Amino acid sequence: MKENQILFNGLRSQMYKQALNDYPDARESDIYVMKKYLAPQSHEVILEAGAGSGFFSGILADMLPAGKLIVSDPSDDQLNGVKELKKENIEVLQEGADHISLPEEKVDAVWSFGALHHCFDKTKAFGNFSRILKKNGRLVIGDVWSSTKLADYFDRHVAKHCVTGHEVAFWSDGFTETLCAISGFSNPEIYDLPLQWKFKKEEEIGDFIYKFHAMTSTTPEDCLNAAHELLGVQKQEDGTFNLNWPMKIFVATKL
After folding, report:
1. Which residues contact 78 (CB under 8 A, 6 or more apart)?
2. Pairing state of beta strands 241-253 and 133-143?
3. 182-208 tens-digit pLDDT
4. What contacts 20, CB < 8 A, 6 or more positions away?
5. Angle at CA 61, nearest 5°, toward 184 and 76?
6. Which residues are paired to 254 by β-bridges?
């Protein structure tokens, strides 16, 4: 837990928040994915694991007027962003997924997006998720899969230039199925997410991903070039630009 805290405190956390503040509409497709696959119900108690500075948290909390959102992240810097939302139905835990201390059968669903590749003890994390979920509770996790263009982008570009490095453990279909089986979940339904992040100008892509991953040893211009080469960028008829960001998401139920 302590190691992961260091990763997302200080400059890493500051630049991440700045990217989201500068381009608040770039990741609208991610919000759509959350609403579609998590489908939160107004009365539910939901754990958001690896919530970061709260990109999803405010929207999720508003969708739970009769429920509660429990937000967890190992970084105190990141969680300051969640606290600044000042939502009465948000509970904040400074804990990583492999250290969740909630009691048994506490939540209706667990949600995480783009975060758990940083958790190396996924077996322990899944054990925690199974323990805190109610029977038939949902586990909904979107993330980066190994042997994909996005994983290659992280390994070739982000790991080289990120101020903290980017040593992680990406997902695979087989390992996901095994984790679910040994942790008391149904066989996961795994879906491709051909996401595209949207920007008004082409140069905004380089600036966003430069800040998003705190790639201080390179430049926004180099980040834009890497995006073109490794991920793909498309100009739209209205003059805007889309950055490919291919992920996967899976849904499993506690048995």
Report:
1. 8, 9, 13, 16, 17, 51, 52, 53
2. antiparallel
3. 999 999 999 999 999 999 999 999 999
4. 27, 53, 55, 212
5. 80
6. 185
